[in-house]
């Protein structure tokens, strides 16, 4: 039920950029929910040039529409929506995601029964094929997400930001997304920070959502049994993932893994550039990642001190959602060298 007066129990926040092909199915999937509680839909249009903002304004007058004059990225888009959200809970939803009819009911029921605030997610299905992508993700030591396909494994490391539910109070405590991330790995940051502070990150085994993976930044997908990704995505994901590691890994794990991670990144870049015959891959992805850590060293140092000063769980508990084997090695064995376009 859409909000027209009473405070909504949940604010569905949809970040939209040039989403004319997908926004209808996304909004309609929310409006078609088998859910009796009051909800509001907020859409942040990130300076689209495809007319989607005007389309939403005309066809969905009940939607709270925020139109940005400039393209600000996924993080700022969601931070802006969360700031005006009136719901007790927030659901971050990609414009290329479509909820199953019982999605809100499943999330709300679990959230109300939880003993403490938690970040919740749902099984993610490929909208093109209908196949299960993941039920949340675990991590390897270097923060590469490992898709969880076991419905009994509910406590995981990360919920994808394409469909991420949490209490508004928890969003406020965690501080939302870092504006300076732009896009990618902001969901990883939020989940790692929540777990560090002792909150649960959980993927429900039931219901779900369909996701047109890679519609925005040409996400990493398996195409003809080969991993394919766009250069832009790889650059940002490696950079931001390393930011998350620098900020959230507790000592002494940070002091061991972080320098090892940087060294292995440089080694990976050299090997990939040699095998592909493209020295630009080393410069644009791997060296750019190391350079970004140096450029942002002051910001990272200050924020890390603030984060680590907050009371947090022990190392053993934090690492309980990590696997020892590096995920990139298993992907290399199964699918060969990634195709970077």
TrEMBL record:
Residues 11-125 form the Glycosyltransferase 2-like domain. InterPro entries: Glyco_trans_2-like, Nucleotide-diphossugar_trans. The keyword Transmembrane helix applies. The chain crosses the membrane at residues 253-275. GO terms for molecular function: glycosyltransferase activity. Belongs to the glycosyltransferase 2 family. This is Glycosyltransferase 2-like domain-containing protein. It comes from Undibacterium terreum.
